[in-house]
Amino acid sequence: MSIGAGITYGFLFVSLYFEVFLLVAFLERRFSRAPQRAVLNEATLPTVAVVVPCFNEESTVAGTVESLLALRYPAGKLELILVDDGSSDGTRAALEQFRSDARVKIFSKENGGKHSAMNLGLEHTNAELIGCLDADSVVEPDALLHIAPVFENQRISAVTPCIFVKEPETILQHMQNVEYRLSIFNRFILAAIGSVFITPGPFSFFRAKIVRELGGWRFAHSTEDMEMALRMQHEGHLIANAPLAIVHTSTPRTLPALFRQRVRWTYGWLRNAVDYRHMIGNGKYGNLGLLVLPSALISIAAGIYFFSRIAWNALISLREEIVRIQFSGLYPHASFDLFYFNTSMMLFLVFVSVAIILALISAGSFIGTGSKRPPLSTPLFLLFYSFLVPLWLGTAVVRAVFKTGVSWR
Prior knowledge:
There is one protein chain. The chain is of the alpha/beta class and about 400 residues long. Strand 1 (about 50-55), helix 2 and strand 2 (about 80-85) form a beta-alpha-beta unit. Helix content is about 50%, strand content about 15%. The chain has 12 helices and 8 strands.
């Protein structure tokens, strides 16, 4: 066996092992999406502060705040902290229309990034729980009622929601919709095995006391949500998931915008992984240290490797085909004879991997919507999106190695 084939089989084995592990963990969990009626008991519900960091969000922030004001939660236990983080458009004016509501506090500051806006909110609240909602997202009315009761378990210090793509329109957004279903599954099962390493911006909540003890949010290479999750896990805090707490977030409509966003996410993850490298492979941190963090890093390497190998083999095959045509004058034609069907073990493993991914996407759809069918755009996701991912992975790796940094927009 050649070195290249050995590397390929190695990556395929690790990928299959991790996918099967997650699927088995889900089946053992026996998640049931039976309707759960949240009981409103003002005596036991904690006080909550939701921070909305805003930077040039005049077109979307009003819808975000309106969805928060529509939350079914005791008015006396909910406060909204709207932070204009140095916007240069009409964001401030869009926020001012909500000033008359007793639940709303509005602050303006020089641009310092999302982490600074969150820390400002932390300074101006005495609420027991503090969370964030990005200014391009909206929440379902019962979302907070599904999150707050989870904190009755005193071991839990953070809770993540179930995030969907808000009103997908472009083909690219529909493919992201499939990706988010897969993320719903991952977030649910990683919480079940105590290995969450991201507390996403749209509507994740924390015990304010714990956040203060940890020193607040940090810049963290423009990915404060990843760093906070790693820091909490490092200090032994548990992060749970509330799959019935539904949030809808805006996603990039164009490829350049998506590319910039994902380069930033991957770059931040890699730089944070370097900062917390002592957790990788460390049994002290359980499944997170022994399995999840190493697998996340290997998946980046595998994505880049498979894309590079496929592209290289395609170029070699194209060159050989051109030479063959030049010498023989015969052009290739399609053949559906089963004799020519590739039955290699490697191709079989690829098909198995794709089948498992389909199962995970279906599981994510069931967790989020109760439907066992994956979105109709799933074939597009499998055929095209998987070839886009290595492009931003490779770019992020180069930037992480040379520490060039990334821009938010």
